[in-house]
Design goal:
Chain lengths: 560, 138
């Protein structure tokens, strides 16, 4: 029991009295809506009180930071010892262009790097592939070979700064390139820190960057987790991501449930396939959530996620190491909440979302630039977004105390309700036989499609408001300067790739690709052969062609 | 002579972009609005889209691209349709498309462009006004 015995009774009585008074008041002053809901369409009550959280047990369900159930964060010192990592996601044009943007961001106070790749790189194609036409450098940096990776990290102290790479089907290749680039500059693999996103289940569910079918995709992920555990211990070999699930239009509860269920699937696969003990690798699993515009819903989602993961790891997987129970996560503000109309309003949206992420206890944060709904961020827009984090950290005072919203009737009640709904989803997917089985049935995909469709209809009917879009529409649109990627970037990248192809030892490339193919066929860990191939300057497309040939290709079933 | 009553639409995702939220919402809305809808799924080449549009005898192709590669991809789909004598198929586009790209896209033969914030209703209204069934489009 959370309160003295009498409190819930007293509170219920007072609430009843208040409700009688309210009935009269509402007659004179009708409420503005018939339903008050979160962004995810979750009903919110008029008032919360002790009776809403009376079944909570303080030690079991809330506790203190650094202790089970980690609701209040795994860091015992909160943000008082160390802020979250200011990790601005960036990548544009060529490796040289992106290296310059990285240097600018580090100069301005960015404390971690995060790489956006262009679509050919994300999908495992060389820039000169017929499938890649028109895409080079457009929504991130183009990386074809180790040469480009060397340019990308030139002059960056990679023994000190951690680098995150948003890369999924070809995660083994980009990680191999980063490891090789570090070694070439004298930094051994055990010393480097960072993250590869490497979460394929959410690709099938939501982001749709895929290459091979689900089973071999998960096998490749288990390879990286095993390799990282042994040789790259400071690296997070996966970032289990809800971000893209939410961007595809899910509710906050779906984001929470599907992400954690994906995590369960990966843990099961590593244990089964690699025979590792859960405590050997679980401490290096990391997560990634969206911070959308509904302030309290986001905070509660993040708090619920921490408590749920701790319970999953302790009860389902019998983990003993406290670090295995920690849900460490990066957050990005919601790209899909930004509007092309009156784009400067996006600065305000991003600030609210970033504040929610901080109050939710994130370990790392990217704040979107106001122009991201129109193009890649300009330098000015990216700097404002970084400054937003710095203002929250150093001016607003929200870092002074840990988990400041704990104990709020509303916050704790909503955290519990979201958790309960998420458990229902997890049980349902368990009953289907796991996430891969659920994906094959199209279950999470269609749940998200329903939610996205419902939200769009609510916008169209003005049941939900988007300022500047369906309310407060401006006659004259604000003009903002747009960053454009020159079509010439593609030609120059292809020239560089051809130059590498002429220079490299073709025999060595062929041999290393054959060795990779053999490793794939035998079911061995692909990482050693992949690293050898990138060192011989095999390109991303050549290496992924091996995967596509051995494992087959996955095609979008096009559900809607 | 085509006696079909319903307008037949193909919603297509050209290129490597996986942002399919808009394409899937629109596909469903078009179906609910009484159109016949085919959705290609992500990662289609312009060649695949043009040949599927002709095979399926659609009245309209709606292209969706959020990766920035629209300039090349949209124009290429129209070009391929023309080459194959299917210039009666109306092609429209949507996604993250900066205004300064509109003139060149219109010039390439894209008939309408819808960007973030466009209501579903407004897109359907445009189609009802500008697209006819069978091979009656000018």
């Amino acid at each position: 029991m959370y309160f003295s015995k009498e409190t819930p009774t007293v509170s219920s009585e007072l609430t009843e009295k208040w409700e009688r008074e309210l009935a009269g008041a509402i007659k004179d002053n009708p409420e503005q809506k018939t339903r008050f809901t979160t962004q995810s369409d979750f009903d919110i009550k008029r008032l919360y009180g002790p009776q809403d959280i009376e079944t909570l047990d303080f030690a079991r369900d809330i506790g203190v930071p650094g202790n089970f159930p980690y609701l209040r964060g795994h860091q015992i010192t909160g943000y008082r010892s160390k802020y979250w990592t200011f990790r601005m996601f960036s990548g544009l044009g060529s490796a040289r262009d992106t290296n310059q943007r990285w240097r600018l961001l580090l100069r301005e106070g960015n404390t971690g790097l995060s790489t956006a790749f262009d679509f050919p790189t994300l999908m495992g194609y060389d820039t000169d592939s017929p499938r890649a036409r028109g895409e080079c450098g457009k929504c991130g940096v183009a990386i074809d070979t180790l040469d480009d990776m060397m340019t990308l990290v030139a002059g960056i102290p990679i023994d000190q700064v951690t680098t995150s790479m948003t890369i999924n089907p070809p995660a083994t290749v980009l990680w191999a390139m980063y490891i090789a680039a570090a070694e070439a500059t004298g930094v051994p693999a055990w010393k480097i820190g960072g993250t590869i996103q490497n979460d394929m289940l959410k690709e099938f569910i939501a982001q749709k960057t895929f290459m091979c079918p689900p089973e071999p995709s998960v096998k490749l992920i288990s390879d990286t987790i095993e390799f990282g555990t042994k040789y790259v211990p400071r690296w997070n070999p996966i970032s289990i991501s809800g971000y893209h699930i939410r961007e595809a239009g899910s509710t906050a509860i779906q984001e929470l449930a599907f992400t954690l269920r994906d995590g369960i699937e990966y843990v099961e696969d590593v244990i089964r396939r690699k025979g590792l003990d859960v405590d050997e690798f679980a401490p290096r699993l990391s997560f990634f959530f969206n911070s959308h515009i509904d302030f309290f819903e986001e905070i509660c989602k993040m708090r619920a996620a921490r408590r749920m993961w701790a319970r999953i790891m302790r009860d389902r997987f019998k983990a003993k190491n406290p670090r295995s129970l920690w849900l460490r996560f990066h957050t990005q503000t919601a790209g899909c909440s930004l509007t092309a109309q009156q784009p400067l309003n996006n600065i305000t949206r991003t600030a609210i979302e970033a504040l929610a992420a901080v109050l939710g206890g994130t370990q790392s944060l990217h704040t979107n630039s106001f122009d991201e709904v129109l193009c890649l961020p300009s330098e000015e827009a990216a700097t404002i977004a970084l400054r937003t984090q710095q203002i929250i950290a150093e001016e607003s005072g929200v870092v002074n105390t840990i988990d400041p919203l704990a104990g709020s009737y509303f916050i704790e009640a909503l955290t519990c309700e979201m958790e309960a709904k998420a458990w229902e989803y997890i049980e349902k997917i368990d009953q289907m036989g796991g996430m891969i089985a659920a994906i094959k049935r199209g279950y999470p995909q269609m749940e998200i499609a329903d939610a996205a469709y419902n939200f769009q209809l609510q916008l169209d009917s003005r049941e939900k408001t988007q300022v500047g879009v369906n309310k407060y529409v401006a006659r004259e649109e604000q003009k903002v300067p747009l960053l454009q990627i020159d079509e010439q970037v593609e030609e120059e990248q292809i020239e560089r790739l051809n130059e590498v192809r002429r220079r490299r030892d073709w025999k060595a490339v062929k041999t290393s690709l054959q060795e990779l193919k053999d490793a794939c066929k035998r079911g061995d860990n692909v990482m050693p052969a992949c690293i050898a191939a990138v060192k011989n300057l095999a390109s991303i497309g050549e290496i992924c062609d091996v995967y596509r040939e051995v494992y087959g290709e996955y095609l979008d079933p096009g559900l809607f | 002579m085509d006696e079909r009553e319903k307008i037949r639409i193909m919603v297509a995702k050209p290129g490597l972009d996986g942002h399919d939220r808009g394409a899937r919402i629109l596909s469903r809305y078009f179906r609910d609005a009484g159109f016949e809808v085919i959705y290609t799924g992500c990662h289609q080449t312009p060649e695949q889209i043009a040949s599927a549009a002709i095979q399926e005898d659609v009245d309209l192709v709606g292209l969706s691209c959020l990766s920035g590669a629209h300039r090349f991809l949209f124009a290429r789909v129209v070009e391929l349709l023309r080459e194959q004598g299917a210039d009666d198929i109306v092609v429209i586009g949507g996604g993250i498309i900066p205004e300064h790209d509109f003139p060149s896209l219109y010039q390439a033969g894209i008939k309408a462009i819808f960007t973030p914030g466009a209501s579903l209703e407004s897109i359907v209204a445009w189609i009802q006004e500008n697209v006819k069934t069978g091979s009656k489009n000018e």
